[in-house]
Amino acid sequence: MGSHFELLSEQGLRLDGRRPHELRHIKCKLGVFEKPDGSAYMEQGNTKVLAAVYGPHQAKGKKTESNDVVINCQYSQATFSTAERKNRPRGDRKSLEFKMYLQQSLSAAIKSELYPRSQIDIYVEVLQADGANYAVALNAATLALIDAGICLNEFIVACTASLSKANIPLTDISHIEEVSGGPMLTVAALPNAEKIAFIEMSERFHIDHLETVIETAMAGCREIRDILEAAVKEHLLHMGSAADWARVG
Amino acid sequence: MAYVALSDAEKTFILHGVEEDFRCDGRSRRDYRPMELETGLVSNASGSARLRLANTDILVGVKTEIEVPDPLTPEFGKLEFFVDCSANATPEFEGRGGSDLAQELVLSLQNAYESPLAFDYRTLCLIPGQQCWKLYIDILILECGGNLHDAVSLAAKAALFNTKLPRVTATLLDAGITDLIISDNPYDCTRIGIDTVPLLVTVCKIGDFCLVDPSAEEEVCSTVSMVVSVSMRNGEAFLSGTHLTGGGAMHRDTMRNCLQLGLSIGEHLDTLLAKMLRQEQERVGPKRPKTVGFLK
């Protein structure tokens, strides 16, 4: 394999002290803003993302012609989010690519038959980038969609995975591991149905390992799903306690 | 600006409230809405601040770079403002939709900071004519709830206060070339003096009266407002720039009143901000209260 640094120490610990299948610390919050119909903040390690959802509303312009729901995404990254200053927050190739991928993954999760001729706007803003930006952005978008009350088939969550030199799969890749040159696989999945909505791989590894790396990423997805679900339940309990829903719990 | 739909009746209601000196949210004409201010939230930036003024949410990050000073001002460092209106604030900002508003904010900040008496550019100079600091002040607007100018300038000042420049030592090599050594100890750093850094105060004219800190609804009712930039020096408030925004016009007497109001409010605001930032700096370690906002 390539001449990348060893991602795993002899003691079996990663560069930031995690074990191979350990996720970074996740913190999330729903309903952070008032103006959008749904909003969420998500933090995975040092990657921090805000997502806002507007809609469903009447589709604008040319998009009205089709009968289907229009899912409109925008991915932008604050100019101070990376170690090196970015010149512009969006419009570069990476952002356009991520925007397309977001559209693709979210289309798989949204119950599109319920929203004919409507448009749903999903805006994602990365405040601090420290690896797995796409995965965290997608997870934040899922939470914002739930906060907006848009029907989903189920949680769509994304997770990254890599492979160390000793062929040990690693979950949730940080920026330092990304740039160390190891292979990286991003999976967006519907964990309950065990369906994969999106998969992307960079660098290379032997096909024999692909199955294990995908399984590692899926396991990460399931773990993140549980965390998100707990956050949604807590948020609803918090919001609903004012309306006496809490007892139903 | 974010679009707010108001009927004629609602506008009249706001107008009458302003006349009675009792606005919709119970404030008088000289009152500000509650603010939240936090500093040092973004670890990838040299300095950062987040300000929430009622529904207006601003995040500012300051990044630093070493550059060559302009030949015309060899002893001055450089400042560059950049405003990004995030589509999170309103769908109208999608793509390039927010660039006009962003440009307006950048220009008024540049105007206010232009005078070397308002911002001491000499402190950013490392070797005159050869090396200086360039500060990128990147402002991200996350939610619009009116009065963006004031909020942006307050957040920018707080972020400058929070900015830590690593200590730089220069050694003279052969042939007059200087070599810079930048300290890699994160605690070995210098701060920027922010005493004279200007604040913007928007004075908004509704009906026959002037008021400060207009909400998004009040901004719709006003035809013209005046942005006054106030820089404090030796306990006195100085004007470091001003401009009118909006479609209307203003009588000269009204303008004088607006300037007076802006200056006195700016002075008060500056004292409060300085006090708050001092508190923020002193509360370190376990004494530091939990952050209130969504970040962290």
Protein topology:
The complex is a heterodimer of chains A (249) and B (296).
Chain A: E1 26-30, E2 38-44, E3 47-58, E4 70-77, H1 93-109, E5 118-128, H2 133-147, E6 157-163, E7 169-171, H3 175-179, E8 184-190, E9 195-202, H4 207-240
Parallel strand pairs in A: 4-5
Antiparallel strand pairs in A: 1-2, 2-3, 3-5, 6-7, 6-8, 8-9
Helix pairs in contact in A: 1-2
Chain B: H1 8-19, E1 35-39, E2 47-53, E3 56-67, E4 78-85, H2 99-113, E5 125-127, E6 131-143, H3 148-162, E7 165-166, E8 168-172, E9 178-182, E10 189-190, E11 199-206, E12 209-212, H4 216-221, E13 224-233, E14 236-245, H5 252-282
Parallel strand pairs in B: 4-6
Antiparallel strand pairs in B: 1-2, 2-3, 3-6, 5-6, 7-10, 8-9, 11-12, 11-13, 13-14
Describe this structure as you would to a colleague:
- The complex is a heterodimer of chains A (249) and B (296).
- Chain A is an alpha+beta fold and 249 residues long.
- Chain A has a single domain, classed as GHMP Kinase, N-terminal domain (Ribosomal Protein S5, domain 2, 2-Layer Sandwich), CATH 3.30.230.
- Chain A is 29% helix and 27% strand.
- In chain A, strands 1-2-3-5-4 form a 5-stranded mixed β-sheet.
- In chain A, helix 1 packs across helix 2.
- Chain A starts with 25 loop residues before the first strand and ends in a 9-residue tail after the last helix.
- Chain B is an alpha+beta fold.
- Chain B has one domain: 2-Layer Sandwich (Ribosomal Protein S5, domain 2).
- Chain B contains 5 helices and 14 strands.
- In chain B, the strands form 4 sheets. In chain B, strands 1, 2, 3, 4, 5 and 6 form a 6-stranded mixed β-sheet that branches. A 4-stranded antiparallel β-sheet of chain B has the order 12-11-13-14, with helices on both faces.
- Chains A and B meet through strand 2, strand 3, strand 4 and strand 5 of A and strand 3 and strand 6 of B.
- Chain B: Belongs to the RNase PH family.
